[in-house]
Amino acid sequence: MRGCQKVAGVIDKLSGGHFPEEFEDDNIYHCRVLIGMQRMPEEEIRDYFSNDRKALDNNIALEPKKKIAKEFKEQLIIGNPTNQEEIALKKLSKQLKEKRVVVKLHLKHTLHAKLYLAHRDDYNSPTIGFVGSSNLTFAGISKHGELNVDVVEGDAAKKLSKWYQDRWEDRWSIDITEVLAQIMDESWATEKLYTPYHVYLKIDYHLSREARAGISEFQQEVQEGISHELEDKLVEAFTQPHLWEIRKTWNQKAPENIGLPTEIYRELIERRKSHADLKAKIDGGEITRINDFITYNLNIRQFSQDFIENTEDAAFIRHFYKSIAGYKDQSQPKNSRAPITILDPTCGSGAFLFAALNILEPLYEACIIRMEQLVEEQPGKHKFFEETLFEVKSDQHPSLQYFIFKSIILNNLYGVDIMNEAVEIAKLHLFLKLVATVDVNPRNDNFGLEPLPDIDFNIRTGNTLIGFATKNELLQSIH
Predict the structure, then answer these.
(1) Of 64, 200, 332, 466, which is most buried with the most CB atoms under 10 A?
(2) CA 467, CA 200: separation in Å to the nearest integer?
């Protein structure tokens, strides 16, 4: 497949589309490739002496098609591709989709020798054939010692063309052009650009699959060493087998696919045991306080998000959202609630505030999505949810993410730094995070961007150790 760059320029001049029924001297042909499946000698002998010879049908024909697709996939992952090979394969993928190159798999008979037919605008020899065993590569043509014959004589060339045409039109010549194009789209030769997030997911998937497979590949001695019956027993002189024999491999380095870097089997087993104990505590309802989460180094944000996404308790979602976003009750101010606030007294360029923003964002989003679901299930029952969703979907906010980031920046984040330059950089970081969520629309006023919020009160220049020396300094800072 990687050798296609040798003829790519010639193929680009072809018209593509549908085939003419017979060859004509109009020079608009497609590049047609007919592939024959080869069989190992053992398969042929087994089939010859077998009494159960099955006739070729659609189900049987499907297996060779899968086999050839697998072989093409394996070709694409061999070695490190060069830039020229990547360009050539992308061009081939495009030519396959445009039907400038059409590939069929011939299943009726095995095809071993190679036949190359070229048609040109020449009265004396419009068709030239090359028959032999060499592949159409530089090495195949110039270095190998197979026999290759060029056929220029008109009658012989026509016979070769008819032989090829008969097999091309045979019922068991299956078109695999789209299959090959799809394989190339799923390989490194695709034109599609993937986001770093999807690349990360792909890597994470393969690493996790290798880890799951590696768990089943524990060394036999280690598997035998995990003996729960011995945990509560005293090791005495007559104990058989001796504990040191059972655990002699525990100080060896654990395989990379199941262990952490530099982790030995003993540490691996202890870590897995610790995780099992922790899961048992969670399942048993023993972890109920914030201090417990901190003690066991658990992800509090993820636990909260999981509960919000799965709970049916509308009251919990309402109070949780009010706790993080705040709530102003115009009719009964005493019922108002201030939002959770996060202060970095030495914020610098805003790294800590940025981290807090990333923690609060999924909690906001989980609450709002759950509100939408509950309102859709029970219209008119949740007034607070409907009011919140009306504000979220107003024209002032181009998207849900914009509303969430704006709310967090205005209501939850506060920072102080003695350097004015650092404060301005922190503001810029937060503004860029906010603007990145907006899709620019040239037809709208100001390209669909609303004026950036004023966060001068949230992120300020000051000395948190000394504060204000006089009352006038405080008043001047406020005004």
Answers:
(1) 64
(2) 45
